[in-house]
Input
Amino acid sequence: TITSRNIAGQCDTRYVMQWTSALAMAPLSLRRTSTPAKSSPAGHFSFGIIADVQWADAPDGHNYAKTVRRCYRGALTTLGDAVDWWLRMPEPNKPLFVAQLGDLIDGMNRRLGQTDAALETALGQLDRMPCPSVNLVGNHELYNFDREQLAEAPWLRHGDKEYYGFSPVEGWRVVVLDIYQISLIGHNKDDPRWLEAVEILARENPNVSPDGADGDWFVGMEDAGFRRRFVPYNGGFGREQLDWFRSELEAAAEVGERVLVLSHAIIHPEACGGMTMAWDYEEALDIIRCEEAAGCVAAVLCGHDHRGNYHCDEYGVHHCTFISPLNGGKAFGLMKVETGYLEIFAPTIDDCLPDVSGATVANSGRQPFSSWALRIN
Output
């Protein structure tokens, strides 16, 4: 279930997501409620969420298609506002960590010679939090740093292979994925992961040169469907990571843990426009849905697609794609994990997550979620 309600003070609206086992699903619905949920005595926690800050000390620009304005300096202001907002959270909702879903600084910083300064400034905002940040590797990290540099980065866990799991509280596991293990960006030219990326793109999209140089990557791809994901700004998990992912979910299922998956790029085509997905998203979905995982995954949280999106799949997994602060607005939020449901708070929810496809809007206004009714089977 996704429920929304107006809340005085900290936030305008929020989602509440309820889940059922993949082996025993029930209909899912979106409805309005009027009373706040009470915190569970154990096994609950909250964490901040922000994606694709892409800050740079540069004038506003546009996306590649020149259709969306990008507020590079404003994105840093939004990051600071997010930290202020998280710091003001009352005690039951104080974040245990911040999920920074990748692309903290923009790739143009390298061209401007501002990479280190931009990163220091952005991390300085996150360091104001009394809790750690879980920083994912996005494509813009790899425009600024190679994997050897990331392996030495103190703000990452591993850098070269930035996938791992941790348990924030009893009964829950967070799995962090690294979508660019197979990639044209970040790797040396003799790295097997780069060589595999060259082979994949040569097969799936011959418009892309091995050096990943800019060009019209979509010539003749108008009817290619999800094959349009085979471009250099996406990448693949790779066999090694996918095998690890399967074992991580199997281990969680064996001990009765629920799982939240964090990934920079999207792993469900209905949670994006189809051009910002992992190359091997189908294998990742198969692992989430496999019998050994026993329906342990509650949600997959992503960035990368700046417009954001949301999809609840037929297995009851919530795929949330968060909007980028580059777009303007208050693009950040807080997820509260409770027994049986998730809540997503935000100062303005439609700046954090976009409209849910298929929703019926009963009343117009800045807070559309307060009057939606939607059933998902």
